[in-house]
Amino acid sequence: MSRDPIPLFKVFVSDDVLKPVNEVLMSGYIGQGPKVNEFEGLLKKHVGNDNLVTVNSATSALHLAAHMLKKPDPETNWPGLEAGDEVLTSALTCTATNWPMLANNLDLKWVDVDTETCNMCLDDLEAKITEKTKVILLIHWGGYPLDLDRISEILDRAEKRIGFRPFVIEDCAHAYGSRYKGKLLGNHNSMACFSLQAIKHFTSVDGGFITMPNKTLYKRAKLLRWYGIDRESPREEFRCEADVEEWGFKFHMNDVNATIGMHNYPHIDRLVQAFKDNSAWYDKELEGVAGVTNMRRDDWADSASWIHTIKVERRDDFSRHMEAHGIMTSRVHERNDKHSCVSQYKTTLPKLDELVNEMVCIPNGWWLSDDDRQYVLDCIKKGW
Ligand SMILES: *Cc1c(COP(=O)(O)O)cnc(C)c1O
After folding, report:
1. Distance 208 CA to ligand 1 centre (A)
2. How many CA atoms lie within 13 A of 100 on its CB side?
3. Of the CATH numbers 3.30.830.10, 1.25.40.850, 3.40.640.10, 3.40.190.10, which one belongs to the domain with range 18-267?
4. What is the C-alpha separation between 194 and 122, in angstroms, rounded?
5. How far apart are CA 313 and CA 381, in angstroms?
6. pLDDT tens across 236-261, in order?
7. Residue ranges per structural domain of the chain
8. Beta carbon of 210 within 6 Å of any ligand 1 atom
9. pLDDT band at 235 (very low <50, low <70, confident <90, very high)
10. How does DSSP assign 259-287, residue by residue?
11. Is 59 in the pocket of ligand 1 (CB under 6 A)?
């Protein structure tokens, strides 16, 4: 008997979703309405941050975040964005992390990686901050949190040197359920962008949300996700609304997506825990296995483990070996600096060069049985 292939990603949709989705679809109201509000309420409670706004994708959230920083704010000594301003970012991520920065006229400046975590190298980050650095864009690879306290110290020093504090945007698309020093991401004085796309931990088919560091930015985000119009203020005449002071986008979530999200929500703790448990199990079982190096685990880091990354010798041979045994592996995201549309930002990234030759992700999601993960381990131990 041959076993079913073990995929690297799988969509989770709760089997009780059809009836409520049908009801919404036939209700005559499928846009942003009561279901979005209800879903947003659940997410606020879960993340522990009231300054949370749902949107239609993490890409939109990232776009909105960068856009909102254009406006100066004298109260917080924020200088706004000007032509030639830079975002310090990692090239090892989804294109969705960095392309929204380009769409907002920011120049990308690549920061090298930490080869033990796949996250940004914080020494290189600090070395690359200049007066042009307006934004630090963080991506928590596979959900593994960056050392946010250390980043805060780096920004304290930068602020003294350059006269303002670069703003932190976090791409938390891998990180729903990740904690830094016990606290869920989305609570660390930044704009944090989460994805509810099909293959993330938690899906609403497509969707996302953004958490804000204060009420002022929260209120502005809520307006700008839908043209700059306040959907909550009573309108005297249908479609004729009050003055728009600041124009915005069409980034809002709708009631159909919110309904799907809400019915997946009761499962999410269990799903995230399964990713975490499988990852911890691999860490233990792969320790000392020939040809394999585990990633570093700091005691303050609790990763949602959306993907489980290891480093292996002769990576392409490894992937072929696993594929021949019906196990899907991948590097998941191509390094962004390879694309010709960003060739003007090219720089030497020696640690990333080294890492991309060794790194690979193995299946660790909720769909793996104990028997499946044992099979994955046995195939690795067999050698390639
Ligand atoms: C999936 C993903 C995104 C984009 O999320 P969408 O909701 O599909 O826009 C952004 N960044 C990273 C790192 C991702 O993995």
Report:
1. 9
2. 23
3. 3.40.640.10
4. 22
5. 13
6. 666 666 789 999 999 999 999 999 99
7. 18-267, 268-381
8. no
9. low
10. HHHHHHGGGHHHHHHHHHHHHHHHHHHTT
11. yes
197 CA → ligand 1 middle, Å: 7
Please write the tens of the pLDDT for every residue from 290-324: 999 999 999 999 999 999 999 999 999 999 999 99
| Contact between 136 and 166 (Cβ < 8 Å) | yes
208-230 pLDDT, tens per residue? Answer: 999 999 999 999 999 999 999 98
pLDDT digits (tens, 9 = 90+) for 155-184: 999 999 999 999 999 999 999 999 999 999
Q: Indicate whether residue 52 lines ligand 1 (CB < 6 A).
A: no
Q: Which residues pair with 47 in a beta bridge?
A: none
- 119/295 Cα distance (integer angstroms): 11
268-381, which class in CATH? alpha beta
* pTM over 0.85, yes/no: yes
Q: What's the CA-to-centroid distance between 200 and ligand 1, angstroms?
A: 8
- Among 268, 97, 249, 104, which Cα is nearest to 172's? 97
